[in-house]
Amino acid sequence: MQNVFIHHVFFWLKDPANDVSKKQLIEGLQKLSAVSTIRSFHIGKPAGTERSVIDTTYAVSWLITFDKASDQDSYQVDPIHLNFVKECASLWDKVVVYDSVDV
Amino acid sequence: MQNVFIHHVFFWLKDPANDVSKKQLIEGLQKLSAVSTIRSFHIGKPAGTERSVIDTTYAVSWLITFDKASDQDSYQVDPIHLNFVKECASLWDKVVVYDSVDV
């Protein structure tokens, strides 16, 4: 992958044992994937691998790629994204984001 | 993206101000990309975005995708990967890995 902006978000739920919360978040991300500037997306969960360096504690991951940084900027203020935050922010306890571009 | 195993690694260098260390790590990752089971890869750096939830402190990121979990297993023991660890492990202070599969 080159000439790409990678936005990877990890969500920890307030109530990790609650499958309804997890399902709501996943449904929210599926709706969020409609933002037009997103080049590709992946909704994930921990893969079941176990080593000391692997963080397996998050509930849901959201990986999206953009063609350029300005597309990520517009995603942040896209009405679909704002609606996602409004509908789903109460579900999570913690969010960690990594934004990466080509070296 | 579907039917994919995502392996995302973040490296913090022992000597973050040392451009030589960073260059060595990037060259090591470029060689590492030759592992045959890797479907796609991205060598990254922080994108320059700034919000409280964004971790901007790593030096280099390594995102690779595989078709299936067993391909990631074989990558871990691939001679090219073992050689990368041997040549580059002295460069980093901390590594955090997130492995994700489809929900």
What would your notes on this structure say?
Two copies of one chain form a homodimer. Chain A is of the alpha+beta class and 103 residues long. Helix content of chain A is 32%, strand content 33%. Chain A is built from three helices and four strands. Chain A has a four-stranded antiparallel beta sheet with strand order 2-3-1-4. The longest helix of chain A has 14 residues. The first copy, chain A, is globular, with a radius of gyration of 14 Å. The N and C termini of chain A lie close together (12 Å). The mean pLDDT of chain A is 97. Chains A and B meet through strand 1, strand 2, strand 3 and strand 4 of A and strand 1, strand 2, strand 3 and strand 4 of B.
Are there runs of chain A of 5+ residues with pLDDT below 50, and where? none
Q: Overall mean pLDDT score of chain A?
A: 97
Rg of chain A:
14 Å
Total number of strands of chain A: 4
Q: List the secondary-structure elements of chain A in sequence, H or E.
A: EHEEHHE
The order of strands across the largest sheet of chain A is 2-3-1-4
Question: How large is the share of residues in beta strands of chain A?
Answer: 25-35%
Number of alpha- plus pi-helical segments of chain A: 3
Provide the helix percentage of chain A. Answer: 25-40%
Outline the fold blueprint.
The structure is a homodimer of 103-residue chains.
Chain A: E1 5-13, H1 19-32, E2 40-46, E3 60-66, H2 69-77, H3 79-88, E4 92-102
Antiparallel strand pairs in A: 1-3, 1-4, 2-3
Helix pairs in contact in A: 1-3
